[in-house]
Design brief:
With about 375 residues, the protein is of the alpha/beta class. The protein folds into 2 domains: about 180 residues, Rossmann fold (3-Layer(aba) Sandwich); about 170 residues, RecF/RecN/SMC, N-terminal domain (Glutathione S-transferase Yfyf (Class Pi), Chain A, domain 2, Up-down Bundle), CATH 1.20.1050. Helices cover about 40% and strands about 25% of the residues. It has 11 helices and 15 strands. The protein has a 6-stranded antiparallel sheet with strand order 2-1-4-5-6-7, covered by helices on one side. It has a 6-stranded mixed sheet with strand order 8-12-13-3-14-15, sandwiched between helices. A hairpin with a 2-residue loop joins β14 and β15. α4 packs across α7 and α7 packs across α8.
Length: about 375
């Protein structure tokens, strides 16, 4: 599989308010403007779906379907730095979702490796404010791309976890529950070591991005693995078996790990404004993109929905400068062209009543 990551062509059929839409973006900076409910975010949602095989604003695949019936389809041609064009697609037939990679049936991981995609959106504050599950998902997306052993180990851990939890729910003997502990402990070691390496690699780029976007130099990341490290995971499982029986679930492990963010030695939750939160999310996203690039992978595609939301003029300028300097492809939505992009090379599109048109393309665009 080639290392692809520049969208050369995107198509969507019966995608929310679009009967059919086709987008031929620039390889670097793309700006999509339009009024509320015009369909700007839907374009980003379609791109995100192809890279993540899920939506960032809908829980059910059927929610993407438009007025033409219970179906939708997505397609992208993704260009590699070597000139190879990969074709990926997804479709929903009213019941199931099908994935395609170069005309063959595919898995989610296949599409994710072809189209690595990141998102900065108005509800990105969940990454800062909400529970650890959001931060685990952020972390594991990056680990998946740079640690080849991670996905298999994580899947084996989850299978063993399901079996152990079922044994707990059924009230099976201690021996039947504990039989899954060795597999859990072995896979937890692989998963956690990969996460630790990723957090350590993120530390420098994250601090640099926070300095650039927020002009603060005291941002820190740390990882809690999800159990008492002094006791070890296998010992902790044995020690807490009776508690897990009462809960009918395994309450410790990598599935309870937490990525922690701090500035000036204090946790960030409830301490920073929404604008600062948005720039912190941007710092996390851009730092993780840096890790992938340093690992020899192509720059992920970055999506920025509702660029101006929550951001002062100064914050908009800082984020726009960071995006313009980013070496990969970027898609930005806004009501109108933000002043921060006025002097930057950009291909600009406009959406109105489910119709997409090209407005302009700077002559000096990359």
């Amino acid at each position: 599989m080639s290392q692809s990551n520049t969208v050369a062509l995107f198509r969507g059929d019966n995608l929310r308010l679009y009967k059919s839409v086709e987008l031929s973006p620039h390889a670097h900076l793309n700006l999509i403007t339009g009024s509320n409910a015009a369909g700007k975010t839907t374009l980003l949602e379609g791109l995100y779906w192809l890279g993540r095989t899920k939506s960032f604003r809908a829980g059910d695949a059927g929610e993407l379907a438009g007025a033409a019936g219970k179906h939708w389809s997505l397609f992208a041609q993704v260009q590699s730095s070597m000139g190879v064009a990969d074709k990926i697609g997804a479709g929903w037939d009213g019941e199931t979702v099908g994935l395609r990679y170069n005309e063959q049936r595919a898995r989610s991981a296949d599409l994710a490796r072809v189209l690595a995609i990141q998102l900065i959106d108005p509800v990105g504050h969940r990454l800062i404010e909400d529970g650890p599950g959001y931060r685990r998902s952020y972390l594991d997306w990056g680990v998946f791309h740079v640690e080849h052993s991670f996905l298999g180990a994580w899947q084996r851990y989850q299978r063993a976890l399901r079996q152990r939890n079922q044994a707990l729910r059924l009230g099976q003997p201690d021996s039947a529950v504990s039989a899954w502990d060795p597999e859990l402990a072995d896979m937890a070691a692989v998963v956690t070591a990969a996460r630790v390496r990723h957090v350590e690699a993120l530390a420098g780029p994250f601090t640099k991005e926070v300095e650039r976007l927020l002009e603060q130099s005291d941002a820190r990341l740390s990882l809690s693995p999800g159990w008492n490290e002094e006791r070890g995971f296998a010992s902790s499982l044995a020690d807490q078996l009776q508690q897990h029986r009462r809960l009918s679930t395994t309450a410790i492990g990598p599935h309870r790990a937490e990525l922690r963010l701090a500035m000036a030695g204090q946790r960030l939750k409830g301490r920073v404004s929404r604008g600062q939160q948005k720039l912190l999310v941007a710092a996390l996203v851009l730092a993780q993109c840096t890790i992938l690039i340093e690992a020899g992978l192509p720059p992920p595609v970055v999506l920025v929905d509702d660029f101006s939301a929550e951001l002062s003029t100064e914050y908009q300028s800082r984020l726009a400068t960071a995006l313009a300097a980013y070496p990969g492809q970027v898609f930005v939505t806004a009501f109108q062209k933000p002043q921060a992009f006025e002097t930057m090379p950009v291909k600009m599109f406009h959406v109105e009543h489910g119709r997409l048109s090209v407005v302009e393309q700077s002559e000096n665009g990359r």
